[in-house]
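User: Sequence recovery, please. Input:
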C-alpha cells in the first residue's frame, strides 16, 4: 500500500475546506495536483473518500472514518521530521555510554551532569559492560562511547580512538579503626599482610587495572577477602573492617562513614579514558569530547 504524505495532506485539506480550489490555495499548489494526489490515495486505499455534490465536496462514510487518523498520521510525520532535524542539530537524540568496571564514579557523575546541562534534549543511556564487549560494540554502534580506567590504553582496533578524561592518584581504603588508618601515607609493601576486597578478574576482563598486578610488582601476592563487580560493594566489604582496598582517591566521596582513605605512594596515576569509533562521531559524542576539553589521542 503506497500512501504518501502529500496524498494525506491533500485529503485533509479537501475534507476541511470542502472545496478543491480552496484546498489547493491553502496548500499552495495547483488544483489538478490536489485532485491527482487524492485519486492516488483513494486507489491505494481501494476506497472512495470524497464525492462531489454540485460545487460541494462531501465525505463518504469511509472518508469520515479515515479523516481523524489521517490528521494523526500527518501530525506524527511532522513530529518525526522535527525530531530528526533536532537530532541533526544536536538538540535531541540518544547517547549510549558503555561503562566498564573500576571507572571512578565521580568522573562519570561530573561528566553526565555537565552533559545534561548543556544538551538537555539528548537522552542518556548507560550500560554496564566488559571492556572486550565495549570494543566490539563501538564499531557496531550499539554503544557510542565507552569509559574505562587503567594505567595504559587497552589494545584495540585501529578505528577506536582513546582519549584521557582524567587522571588521579590511588589511595588505600580501610576501616577508620585500622592501625594503618593513622599513617599519613602508605606504600604497597605496608599491605603485604592485609586481605583485599577487589574488583573481580572476570569483571575487569583484561582491563589494565587490578591490585593483583600491583602487588606482584611490589613482591607479594594479594590475599583476597572478597571479589565483587562494582565499587559500591567493594567499599561495603572494606567497611566490615576485614579487608582493605586500593582505589582512586575520588571514590572517597561515596564511601561509608566507617571507611577512610590514606594516600598511596604509587607514582603512576590511574587514568580514566574515553573510547569511541572515529569513523562515526554523532553529536552526543562530539559534545562529550568538547566537555572533556583539549585532548590528545593516546597510542594504540
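Assistant: Recovered sequence (300 residues):
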Amino acid at each position: 500500500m503506497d500512501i504518501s504524505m502529500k496524498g494525506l495532506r491533500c485529503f485533509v485539506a479537501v475534507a476541511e475546506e470542502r472545496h478543491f480550489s480552496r484546498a489547493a490555495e491553502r496548500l499552495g499548489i495547483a488544483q489538478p495536483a490536489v485532485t491527482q494526489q487524492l485519486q492516488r490515495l483513494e486507489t491505494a486505499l481501494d476506497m472512495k473518500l470524497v464525492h462531489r455534490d454540485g460545487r460541494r465536496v462531501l465525505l463518504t462514510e469511509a472518508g469520515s472514518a479515515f479523516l481523524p487518523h489521517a490528521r494523526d498520521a500527518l501530525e506524527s510525520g511532522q513530529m518525526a521530521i522535527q525530531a530528526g532535524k533536532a537530532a541533526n542539530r544536536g538538540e535531541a537524540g540518544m547517547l549510549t555510554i558503555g561503562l566498564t568496571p573500576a571507572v571512578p564514579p565521580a568522573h562519570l557523575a561530573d561528566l553526565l551532569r555537565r552533559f545534561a546541562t548543556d544538551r538537555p534534549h539528548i537522552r542518556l543511556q548507560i550500560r554496564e559492560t566488559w571492556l572486550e564487549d565495549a570494543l566490539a560494540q563501538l564499531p557496531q554502534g550499539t554503544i557510542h562511547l565507552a569509559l574505562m580506567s587503567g594505567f595504559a590504553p587497552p589494545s584495540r582496533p585501529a578505528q577506536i580512538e582513546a582519549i584521557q578524561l582524567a587522571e588521579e592518584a590511588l589511595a588505600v581504603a580501610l576501616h577508620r579503626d585500622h592501625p594503618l588508618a593513622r599513617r599519613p601515607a602508605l606504600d604497597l609493601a605496608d599491605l603485604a599482610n592485609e586481605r583485599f576486597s577487589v574488583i573481580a578478574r572476570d569483571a575487569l576482563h583484561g582491563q589494565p587495572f587490578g591490585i593483583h598486578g600491583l602487588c606482584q610488582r611490589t613482591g607479594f601476592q594479594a590475599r583476597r577477602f572478597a571479589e565483587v563487580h562494582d565499587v559500591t560493594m567493594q567499599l561495603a566489604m572494606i567497611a566490615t573492617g576485614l579487608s582493605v582496598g586500593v582505589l582512586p582517591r575520588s571514590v572517597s566521596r561515596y564511601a561509608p562513614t566507617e571507611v577512610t582513605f590514606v594516600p598511596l605512594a604509587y607514582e603512576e596515576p590511574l587514568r580514566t579514558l574515553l573510547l569511541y569509533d572515529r569513523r562515526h562521531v554523532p553529536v552526543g559524542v562530539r559534545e562529550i569530547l568538547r566537555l572533556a576539553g583539549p585532548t590528545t589521542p593516546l597510542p594504540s
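The first helix runs from residue 5 to 17.
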